[in-house]
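Hey team,

Sharing the tRNA modification GTPase run so nobody has to redo it. Sequence (411 residues) first:
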Amino acid sequence: MKHKINKSLLLLLFIFLLSFNVFSQISFEKGYFITNTEQRIECLIKNLDWRSNPTNFEYKLSDNDEIINNNIKSVKEFGIYNNLKYISYNVKIDKSNENINNLNYERNPVYNEELLFLKVLVEGKSNLYFYENGNLQKFFYNIDNSTIKQLFYKKYLTTDNNIGKNSLFKQQLNNDLKCQTIDLNKIENLEYKKNSLINFFNEYNTCSNSDVKNYDRKVKKDLFNLTIRAHVNNSSLSIEKSISERNVDFGNRLGIGLGIEAEFILPYNKNKWAVVIEPIYRSFNSEKTSDVSFVSGGKLKSIINYSSIEVPLSVRHYLFLKNGSKIFINASYIFDFSTNSSIEFNRLDNSSYDSLKINARNNLAFGLGYKFKERYSIEMRVQSNRNILGDYAYWKANYNTSSIIFGYSLF
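Structure output:
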């Protein structure tokens, strides 16, 4: 049985790889780029929904043309229509980090000049730009196509080892973006965050009677899903004790499990990645009578009552299909919390011979599923072997489970 389960696991992994190859293409969308020689090229750009600002991008001149790679050194601007826009610019940037462990005693900016793709957030009389690389987030601005400058904000250590804040960006905005509807109090309440700065630049451009274009569109994204899931489990268990004839194969059992899944969609890479947690109640009960020589009557009855709450912590990747449905694959690390579970060994007269307490070790699982219209889902999941007798040095337990899981998303 263990050999059969391992074959299923290998088959599922093969399907994973095949799925990535067939479905994981991110779509090419209508866009353009402008070269350093001011040539504008209409094309299809591969939209990676970049979390960190890119240094290159891939494009095709038409659907059937080959993919071409372009980079920041040869392009001054590129964009995807009604979606995003990046410009390349040699900026002076201070890359001080807000991580407490990386703070120093330097209060003032330390600039280095770099060629960067800046993401355009607001376009008008005054423009707002954004640069992100990992945990580093910096904002830039200019007015009437003047030099692009960094809006400076920095946390630093004071001489008494407290955390100080240099909010120079407020002074910059107060000096450069003056308008009737904007007073000092409004600037003092600004935060060095995307939404706060976008709202401010929108107000300034409106106050200045300038046309305003927002690239950071507020599209409602379903970033949390709660799903009820019914598990149909095919489980098997065999146990053995070294230097003993007390080996028992409990065989296969079908069982039902019930879980509730909380899914947190990561808000980048076009919502293709998610972190999932799902408490599941499941049980395995079986009985086996074996011929033995070491008890009176020559037979030993083995009874397992195993119930637990499994808690898979999963990383999920979605592969979108054209009809609004999607395929997903999971890799899970499963925590198992057993409750009043044991394996009992009884003689034929039902007197107790021995008892083992079940304390399961954690294991892995892989799943392949399909979701329809954000509401209904079905998944095939295969788990690696789980040792449910982890507290016993001389016992070995092979517990394996494969499941078909039906889901209904509440929201």
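The chain has two domains: 28-214, 222-409.

Ping me if you want the raw files.
A.
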